[in-house]
User: Which sequence fits this backbone?
């Protein structure tokens, strides 16, 4: 039907299930038969946060996580291999989509956004697997964009959030962007003449989502992520504070040694982001 309306934009959302496990979000997935064992040499990454030795700076529910044993680490390596192997089929699918666009003469007029919905821990901070924590491995996701007017091979250090994709797609489609949205179109960052970093967001809110009606949990939190800081307040009253330039793997929380004025300023900024909506978020 899209081919009959050549003047109208076409939108395709492609969300493969890989690398989720069969019937559950966590655990080893089943790669396509043609890819099973293709990456048998790979092991889960071992950053400094992997199986973290000293957890005394962490909130109590993180402190209680036991040190991973050899069997658990072997299971994490297996899960990592199967996750990456399962993505080989996704690579093939993306390649086919791009080839069809190219064959039909549409690629030069197409924008492609390649992204994920969440990060994932495999042994970092002793978490055997999963997400839902405010650490970098959980909250950071890849974003690669190509399309007309976007310089090739360029990386930029601006905060892009999931709330930005709706206004971005609306702008590309020539549709009006509702004033009620919290995000901003990313197109002002993707073109050659981009908005200065000082005119873009300098921080953002990270939150543990609790579904309506769900029982309260002390593990729920609100976090403030700036260019070089992560500050977190938990429902239990516990806090975390990391200097991401000096401590990018978040091994030593500074919440007990930071001055009260700094904690107060971070807490006040976090409070503003928790209650913002629409224009007040974009500002």
Assistant:
């Amino acid at each position: 039907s899209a081919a009959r309306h050549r003047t109208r934009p076409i939108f395709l959302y492609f969300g493969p299930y890989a690398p989720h496990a069969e019937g559950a979000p966590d655990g080893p997935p089943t790669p396509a038969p043609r890819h099973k064992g293709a990456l048998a040499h790979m092991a889960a990454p071992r950053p400094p946060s992997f199986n973290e030795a000293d957890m005394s700076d962490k909130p109590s529910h993180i402190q209680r996580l036991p040190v991973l044993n050899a069997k658990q680490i072997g299971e994490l390596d297996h899960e990592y291999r199967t996750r990456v192997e399962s993505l080989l089929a996704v690579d093939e699918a993306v390649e086919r989509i791009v080839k069809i666009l190219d064959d039909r003469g549409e690629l030069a007029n197409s924008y492609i956004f390649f992204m994920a919905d969440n990060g994932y821990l495999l042994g970092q901070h002793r978490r055997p697997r999963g997400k839902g924590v405010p650490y970098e491995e959980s909250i950071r996701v890849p974003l690669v964009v190509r399309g007309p007017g976007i310089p090739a091979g360029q990386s930029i250090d601006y905060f892009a959030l999931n709330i930005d994709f709706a206004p971005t797609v609306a702008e590309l489609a020539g549709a009006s962007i509702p004033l009620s949205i919290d995000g901003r179109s990313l197109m002002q960052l993707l073109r050659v003449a981009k908005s200065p970093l000082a005119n873009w967001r300098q921080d953002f809110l990270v939150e543990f989502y609790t579904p309506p009606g769900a029982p309260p949990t002390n593990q729920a939190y609100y976090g403030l992520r700036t260019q070089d800081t992560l500050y977190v307040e938990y429902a239990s009253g516990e806090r975390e504070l990391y200097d991401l330039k000096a401590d990018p793997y978040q091994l030593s929380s500074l919440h007990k040694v930071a001055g009260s004025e700094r904690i107060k300023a971070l807490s006040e900024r976090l409070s503003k982001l928790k209650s913002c909506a629409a224009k007040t978020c974009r500002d």
Notes: DSSP finds seven helices and six strands in the chain.
